[in-house]
Design a protein that fits this description.
344 residues; alpha/beta; seven-stranded mixed sheet; six-stranded parallel sheet; 17 strands; globular
Amino acid sequence: MTHERDAGRWLSMTLAQPGRPLQAVWREQRPAPGPGQLRLKVRTCGVCRTDLHIVDGELAFPGHPVVPGHEIVGVVDAIGDSVSGFESGQRVGVPWLGHTCGACEPCLAGRENLCPQARFTGWQIAGGYAQFAIADARYVFPLPARYSDDEAAPLLCAGLIGWRAYAMAGADIGRVGLYGFGAAAHLIAQVAVLQGREVFAFTRPGDRAAQDLARSLGAAWAGGSDEPAPRPLDAALLFAPVGALVPLALQAVRPGGTVVCAGIHMSDIPSFPYRWLWGERRIVSVANLTRADGEAFMRVAAELPLRVHAVPYALADANRALDDLREGRLAGAAVLRCGEADQA
């Protein structure tokens, strides 16, 4: 056996083609950061449903091998030219949004999440299912010290997308329904409870583990998505990529309520009677995130004692983690421990 630290070899889990398992690829040289970039030694990387959409071919394949992963926790290992504000050994995080043009109308309006030239970590940009990663320093965040590496990884997408979806529901909500109680919902549920809101968790029918987790985190009610809401909701946040949940959520929200579709991919929404939408109900979607979202949520996460239910896997077991997520065997968030894969 040859140790990576002696030989300079490092491991990445790579998708050669959609619909196939990731392949373990050992590389001989560490990547060099260019101007404006950082090289990170990856400690952990969260496993997100968006990764699954890429692996399963539900998002367009970029035409080259992909290293998935956009919930990266690492330490700064090398600093490129024209980078300031970071130091070697600093712990940082990298989210889904990895690059924008900075000059288009959405970027200039503070809506960089809609930039037509945006590039995304773990999709067009090599991600964190690896021992090293290169990141645009503009899209790298310091992380709250109160969270371990395992706990910090899900904050970088599950937390951020949950936060953006929650904010989009409006400031005046009192009762919020969460459809799909996985990585994102288990974090934003705690934020909502700690801010005095009533949370209702809708899981896959019969998923007792997720329902028990929801109750343990303060949910007022937890049940299957096939069950009616106990009380009319002010807002419903959909984290499960199931279009059939949209009509169900519309029926659960009160007049004037909002249904927020939080995923980057969702199956088709079936037709439904107009009366379910009538009454000034709204359906909105969340597209990616902004750096302002990241900064705001990290402040909240630093202040609130969030419990992160992280399920650890070795980097080499990335395919098993993805399969567990695909089959609904996870309650909480899967996290790859990338620093432990030190042998060929």
